[in-house]
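Quick log. Single chain, no ligands specified.
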Amino acid sequence: MGKIIGIDLGTTNSVVAVIEGGKPVIVENAEGGRTTPSIVAFTKKGERLVGLLAKRQAVTNPENTIFSVKRLIGRRYNDGEVQKAKSILPFKLVPGGHTDIKIEVNGKAYSPQEISAMILQKLKKSAEDHIGEKINDAVITVPAYFNDNQREATKSAGKIAGLNVLRIINEPTAAAFAYGFDKKKNEKVAVYDLGGGTFDISILDIGEEGVYEVKSTNGNTFLGGDDFDQRVINWLVDTFKKENGIDLKNDQMALQRLKEAAEKAKCELSSSLETEINL
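-> predicted structure:
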């Protein structure tokens, strides 16, 4: 039997891991990163970019850069969540067949599953390059609150990417496994998950035979690291406008640099009390 990969298909970033020597190892992508931005872009030349390369041109090519597709997968076009996403996402969402959603780019319509599959293909390729052999099987994590439609759609994305999805696992359950809670029995565990686009909490009940049951889950699907970045960007834009009388929101190149600088500053503030932003 070949290697099985584990994939965290995130709203903002995704990760792939393999078991080596009995331990999970995070696989670096072609750009040398341990996480891959969950972003797909289509350039004016018809080229498709996935991951970091797509992220780097996101602000200058907003209508053709698809992100946060996890918020759309397995949902109906008239869902409140989809309509909320539609009001803030810069790319075009249109109704698909059977009340599904399609994402329109350069006159072509893609389903959220197809976009997710492009991200999964990149992760699959990174893992194959790492171990030096073809990979067919995967386990993919999803939020505990995902319904059957969303789970099936995630499975379909895996199939489109050329993966046989052996299992869909709840993210908090996977987190509990990773931190060794499988060695304990009969207890309740709270798992917080603060991601790039969402913030969730789940209460898990761990039974006798290492059986995990998600008892309760809640959260905010529009609160995460990206929102922190946006607050920093807004503050920078407002401060610059007060001091220089120039509104940077009208300058796409400046906005791209601000976005990168804001994210860098946020990361630095995780380990220090203050940081400088120089542009």
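The chain has a mean pLDDT of 90.
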